[in-house]
Automatic annotation (TrEMBL):
<feature type="domain" description="GGDEF">
    <location>
        <begin position="167"/>
        <end position="311"/>
    </location>
</feature>
<dbReference type="InterPro" id="IPR001633">
    <property type="entry name" value="EAL_dom"/>
</dbReference>
<feature type="domain" description="EAL">
    <location>
        <begin position="320"/>
        <end position="577"/>
    </location>
</feature>
<dbReference type="InterPro" id="IPR052155">
    <property type="entry name" value="Biofilm_reg_signaling"/>
</dbReference>
<dbReference type="InterPro" id="IPR029787">
    <property type="entry name" value="Nucleotide_cyclase"/>
</dbReference>
<dbReference type="InterPro" id="IPR000160">
    <property type="entry name" value="GGDEF_dom"/>
</dbReference>
<dbReference type="Pfam" id="PF00990">
    <property type="entry name" value="GGDEF"/>
</dbReference>
<dbReference type="InterPro" id="IPR043128">
    <property type="entry name" value="Rev_trsase/Diguanyl_cyclase"/>
</dbReference>
<dbReference type="InterPro" id="IPR035919">
    <property type="entry name" value="EAL_sf"/>
</dbReference>
<dbReference type="Pfam" id="PF00563">
    <property type="entry name" value="EAL"/>
</dbReference>
<protein>
    <recommendedName>
        <fullName>GGDEF-domain containing protein</fullName>
    </recommendedName>
</protein>
Amino acid sequence: MAPEQVAYEALVEFLYRAPIGLLQARPDGEVTMINPMSAQLLMPLAPTGDLGNLFDVLAPVAPTLRGLAAAHTTPGSVVCDGLRLPLPASDGRALQTLALSITRLDAGTLMCSLSDVSHTVREEQHRLARQLHDVGRIDALTALPNRAVVRERIAQALAAQADPSGVQLAVLFVNADRFNQINLAHGTAVGDALLRQMAQRLGATLRPGDAVGRAVPPASTAARLGGDEFVVVLEGLRGADDVQRVAARLVQTLSQPYAIDGLVLHLGVSVGISLGGSVPGADADSVLQDAGIAMREAKRAGGARHAVFDPAMKVRATYRGLVETELRQALDRGELFVVYQPIVWLGDHDGAGVGVEALVRWQHPLRGMVPPPAFIEIAEQTGLIGALGGFVLETACRQFMAWRQTLGPLAPQGLSVNLSRAQLCEPHLVVQVQRTLEGSGMPPGALQLEVTESLAAQDDAVRQRLQALKALGLTLALDDFGTGYSSLSSLHQLPVDLVKIDRSFVSQLETSAHHRALVKATVEVAQSLGMGTVAEGIETPGQARVLQALQCQKGQGYWFGRPMPAAALAEWLAARQGAGTTTAVTPPVAATPAVTPPA
């Protein structure tokens, strides 16, 4: 047999036995050569067994193929390469997937190959499903696991803990202090970068290696729930002391300064700890909830610390939730009202110039008078403080102008209103104050806004907002001086006009030389900086006399007058004028009764 004949028969044998489909066709699709594998792969599309024209057979799954082939007339051109052809089963599902490649050999010949890629397609689908599953379990910003993973890990650990020989579980709920303020002051890009750095530090803290690292059990998971909330799941703990050490390290590490885009940012973190399984029947959600409750307790205690959950915390949280709901209703129902406490001159004066501080009160229809600390903190935490603060400011400004019309020269000469941390962080605060002044007709110079020293000394963004408020023409007072972060040496750095000396110093003036020296130094430094001084919480004539001797300008407290409704204050002012009081060493009028809501 000639070599050419041998080669030809070998080629035919190869085509016959090839594990892929091979066929030749004319440009119109007429099949001129087809191997058994091609026939086997195409037969589901040709129920009558007619495989005479490739384009006719493939029309149900590739209707544009005929035109595509006609467009490729150049020898060697590729008509299609690995075109996926799903072959439907009777129920419509993909039974099989073929890959078709067609190349034009010459003017009259198309060379085609077919292969079954069903397994490859299924693998790709499974891989994509796994990727989508992973995407649904990973936080896009920090690349940490998300809430779904945390819930799974907690549920698995709780199930294992049901066995006495199983793991011991703790969940740590981590929340950044002051993150919202940083986000508002510097923008979300800086906030996102801060969260990424926090996530990196969180992961590094959980790596074993040092004395604290060895307290971290091998099975630990750090995750981001959302916003500035993170969770750490610790499994296989040796004891509660290990949890305390890990929590303390988290607070320390995450509270170190952050360098971002030329900024140096400072924040603390609050950590709540829930020991899984300490409550019978606990599930993943309840353990997470308990850790969150403990975190909020740590934050309420001042932040930058950790707290371990106990059932009493949940009782308090339930009560706060009830108060929040009722406070929202109280704003709409008119249950809130404003009272006014006199601020008087302590030294010799012409009798004019009494000021007042506006304070909010809540007359609950069932529980009676609700103490301000019981609802103001909740208003700050739930976003109600803006509406509450706006109500107090507008009510007080309008009342101040009403006094001017009805009382004439007896009317208060100044009005003080407190600003909370949450209010000062609201971006529209300055506009709100300006509109209130304009709407009430109140002179800006008669309004004084009070901020705590810890807030005034906080950061540059807060100081800028305080300066914007001062630019309206009002004055700023530093409230509760002596209880926060600032000192006498840094007083000149704060954008305030007046210092209010905290009642904790005033209460011991008659018995403590140390407290007298502190108040004396505060008054002298304030005077040297051109700032006024007001002493809070004066309750005895002896305290008033000491403050007068120390040259403190003004004072307020129960010795002069309790916070009272507007009508009662008008009577107090009239009685004071009738008594001819020009100093405040002795009370100008009889002691005012406890506050009752206005009729």
